[in-house]
């Protein structure tokens, strides 16, 4: 292939236009072994729609594209009605509720406890389970391969001033398509805050 | 503004620009997961020069001894000194454990031979050829090991090696992969 150069002046933009026909439009670049560099490229991280976590026992982000390799779940002052720990579940066609390997701790000098989760990716441990706890933090979930996802979480528990740290993994039966935020007992309801995801 | 497409145009895998969502497929590149069941180290090489973040993912990774695990990086060759790194445990009776290393970005504070670790270590380019790491791992779903570190390379990073600290303990379970972007 000979060189193709599109040169602009000091400002402006270059647009690749998809067909005007309604539907799914994809512009495909040829397969190769080299690199495209685009400084200042934006919007390669896609945001979900923030959900007010003020009711219900779970919040679902569905229709996550199959090409996603990383999901960030953001917690903004999230509280529940009871003492059950908040956890994040993944799904492939349906939500996966077993098979998780996850542990969480509270980072303070007085608490040596930890909590183990098997039904989801955990955020918290010990005293963080109080109904008045507001959670702030982010969970990063990355695709290792073959539908195995690993995560790490760092956050803050406002009521106590504790930090929370967690990590773990799960292998799904298929391609991830959803993230569900819920509680371990599945009956406590969300009563404050908001949650959103980024995917890329 | 100028955009140049030259004769070397190409992307490693199926690569598309999509409309509507603003997403770019394969903005994050995935390497090939490696089964960590033998050997003293696992190498991910040929990392492109444009990479600014590497995500090292551990899935049930175990080693034969207690020397621990660190990540090393390289620029043309593997760098085995000059690191500033430390790891600490939190939770349970392990929370007073900590360790440090100048030979790698250490990611475990105390690791029993029976421990299988799950979690993530991020290695981010802060400036020039200086890289910063932070990690969160859990052994057997029991407690947490957090870590941080830095290394200034003499050139452009092109490899990541996950190795046992003493160089003689061997990997005996799990899998490891990286994302780079």
Compute the gyration radius of chain A: what is it?
20 Å
Distance between the termini of chain B: 23 Å
Q: How would a textbook summarize the main sheet of chain B?
A: 9 strands, antiparallel
Largest sheet of chain A, described in full? Answer: 9 strands, antiparallel
Uncertain spans of chain A: none
The tally of structural domains of chain B comes to 1
Q: Mind telling me which CATH architecture of chain B this is?
A: Sandwich
| SS elements, strand count of chain B | 15
Share of residues in helices of chain B? under 10%
Kindly state the mean pLDDT of chain B as a whole number? 85
Structural class of chain B: mainly beta
- The total of beta strands of chain A comes to 15
SS field, number of helical segments of chain A? 0
What letter string, H or E per element, gives the SSE order of chain B? EEEEEEEEEEEEEEE
Percentage of helical residues of chain A? under 10%
What structural category arises from helix and sheet content of chain A?
mainly beta
The portion of residues forming beta strands of chain B comes to over 45%
Number of helices of chain B: 0
The whole-number mean of residue pLDDT values of chain A reads: 84
- Beta-strand fraction estimate of chain A: over 45%
Rg of chain B (C-alpha, Å): 17 Å
Descriptive tags:
heterodimer, A: mainly beta, 4-stranded antiparallel beta sheet, 15 strands, 0% helix, elongated, B: 181 residues, mainly beta, Jelly Rolls, 9-stranded antiparallel beta sheet, 51% strand, disordered N terminus
């Amino acid at each position: 292939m000979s060189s193709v150069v599109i040169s602009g002046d000091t400002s402006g933009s270059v647009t690749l236009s998809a067909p005007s026909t309604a539907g799914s439009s994809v512009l495909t670049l040829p397969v190769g072994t080299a690199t495209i560099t685009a400084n200042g490229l934006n919007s390669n991280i896609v945001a979900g729609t923030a959900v007010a976590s003020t009711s219900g026992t779970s919040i679902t982000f569905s229709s996550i594209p199959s090409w996603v390799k990383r999901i960030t779940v953001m917690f903004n002052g999230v509280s529940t009605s009871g003492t059950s720990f908040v956890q994040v579940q993944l799904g492939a066609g349906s939500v996966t509720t077993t098979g998780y390997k996850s542990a969480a701790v509270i980072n303070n000098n007085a608490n040596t406890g930890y909590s183990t989760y098997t039904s989801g990716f955990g955020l918290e441990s010990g005293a963080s389970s109080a109904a008045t706890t507001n959670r702030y933090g982010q969970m990063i979930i990355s695709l290792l391969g073959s539908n195995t996802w690993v995560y790490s979480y760092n956050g803050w528990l406002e009521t106590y001033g504790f930090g929370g740290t967690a990590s773990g993994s799960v292998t799904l039966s298929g391609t991830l398509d959803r993230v569900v935020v819920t509680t371990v007992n599945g009956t406590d309801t969300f009563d404050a805050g908001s949650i959103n995801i980024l995917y890329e | 503004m100028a955009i140049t497409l030259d004769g070397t145009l190409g992307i490693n895998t199926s690569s598309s620009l999509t409309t509507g969502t603003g997403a770019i497929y394969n903005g994050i590149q995935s390497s090939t997961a490696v089964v960590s069941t033998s050997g003293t180290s696992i190498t991910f090489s040929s990392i492109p020069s444009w990479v600014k973040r590497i995500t090292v993912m551990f899935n049930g990774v175990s080693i034969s001894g207690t020397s621990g695990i660190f990540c090393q990086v390289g620029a043309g060759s593997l760098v085995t000194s000059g690191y500033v790194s430390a790891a600490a445990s939190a939770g349970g009776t392990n929370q007073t454990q900590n360790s440090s290393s100048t030979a790698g970005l250490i990611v475990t504070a105390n690791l029993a031979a029976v421990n299988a670790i799950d979690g993530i270590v991020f290695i981010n380019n802060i400036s020039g050829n200086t890289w910063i790491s932070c990690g969160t791992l859990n052994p057997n779903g029991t407690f947490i090991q957090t870590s941080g570190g830095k290394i200034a390379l003499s050139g452009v990073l092109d490899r990541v090696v996950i190795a046992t600290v003493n160089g003689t303990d061997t990997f005996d379970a799990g899998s490891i992969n990286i994302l780079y972007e």
